[in-house]
Write a structure and sequence with these properties.
With 92 residues, the protein is mainly alpha-helical. It has one domain. The protein has four helices and two strands; from the N terminus they run βαααβα. The protein has helices at 17-36, 47-64, 67-75, 88-91, and strands at 11-15, 82-86. A two-stranded antiparallel ribbon has the order 1-2. The longest helix is centred in the first third of the chain and has 20 residues, at 17-36. The protein is flat, with a radius of gyration of 19 Å.
Length: 92
């Protein structure tokens, strides 16, 4: 199936509110849980822990995904937060 390019007539690109809301809910959950346990927000600023989690996650994804798929996904990462809709008349 051919994909339409952004900028073509009849195709609009706007923020995907569900992705943005999910990001806000995720961050809010982390901060809320920390505050409920009477933790200190500064405890979340552990660079070494972030490197372990993010590096391990990226390594696991790279281990299980072919390079061509990874490169294609990296190029399209912004589309996670964008909702591309086409006008009904152009679809018809």
């Amino acid at each position: 199936m051919a994909e339409s390019k952004a900028g073509k007539k009849g195709v609009s690109t706007k923020p995907d509110l569900a992705s943005l809301a999910g990001l806000v809910v995720g961050i809010g959950g982390i901060l809320g849980g920390m505050l409920m346990e009477k933790g200190d927000i500064r405890q979340l600023y552990q660079v070494s822990a972030a490197v372990i989690v993010l590096g391990g996650t990226l390594g696991a994804v790279m281990l299980t995904t072919p390079m061509s798929v990874l490169l294609r996904a990296a190029k399209r990462l912004a589309l996670v937060f964008l909702d591309r809709s086409q006008s009904p008349s152009d679809t018809i």
